[in-house]
Amino acid sequence: MIDQNTRFLIVGLGLIGGSYAMGLKKKGYHVDAIDIQEESISYALQNNLIDHGSTYDTALIQQADIIISALYPKAMVTWIKNNQKHMKPHAFISDVSGVKSGIVEEIQNFLRDDLHFCASHPMAGKEVSGVQNADDTIFHSANFIITPTAKNTQQDISCLKDLAHILEFSHISILTLEEHDTMIGFLSQLTHVIAVSLMNTNDNTHLVDYTGDSFRDLTRIAKINENMWSELFFLNKDILIQEIDSFMKEVENLKTKLVEHDEEGLKTLFRQSTKRRKLFDR
């Protein structure tokens, strides 16, 4: 479905949208972009990340074969609903958003019959934001998740697999919407909860002169976009609360081992965590 004549449109030139644009341009594809920030468009044009860009230009929408929304989930729903009238017949749409349930179904329910929307999620990022920090190499060791529904075709899935290969993701997975949100609740959202909670446990400003790598590593993702992550947390609220409860139960389990001076029990927990963590080493 993707060939060298395919025209891409990136909607939202933040870190991920800008990195998509960078990776696609490096491979010789035509890439346009829409972003509400004029300075983001200017930067992308000046640095050859895109061919054309605008804060809003219906011609760019009309010409696009593949549209990638890099907007927040709720903003994406509104943008697609308002702009699908400008899209060419059989245009393909995907996204990069971190929550799927409720969002994907809504889009597919109102979408024109001749348009195709299949959701996906690049499991990549940085602690910085904005197109000025775009870096397509963040995808090269990252996982790419496709979340089709019964309304998607094999061709839709193949298109996203092609996109993932072009951007050089290291691994591609296919999950249901529910599987994705359950997975993301644990692997991404809960880890952000832990990092934020660590930073808010006390005023640790004075500790910056003494801390080692352990604290830095654990709190790296605590530098957080409060608008985006608040939206993601609330959209996945029920799953995330379950994960927080499970985590707190496990912390209490470890605490009990300390209170009861259960040395072997504590070592068992350490051995189990070490064994499980080794699975993530590459």
TrEMBL record:
GO MF terms held by the record: NAD+ binding; prephenate dehydrogenase (NAD+) activity; prephenate dehydrogenase (NADP+) activity
UniProt GO BP: tyrosine biosynthetic process
Keyword Transit peptide attributed: no
Keyword presence, Ribosomal protein: no
Coiled coil: 237-264
Signal peptide positions (record): none
SUPFAM superfamilies: 6-phosphogluconate dehydrogenase C-terminal domain-like, NAD(P)-binding Rossmann-fold domains
Sequence ranges assigned to domain Prephenate/arogenate dehydrogenase in this UniProt record: 6-282
Entry keyword set: Coiled coil, Oxidoreductase
Protein family membership: Belongs to the prephenate/arogenate dehydrogenase family.
Cited PANTHER family: PREPHENATE DEHYDROGENASE, PREPHENATE DEHYDROGENASE [NADP(+)]
The name this protein goes by in its record: Prephenate dehydrogenase
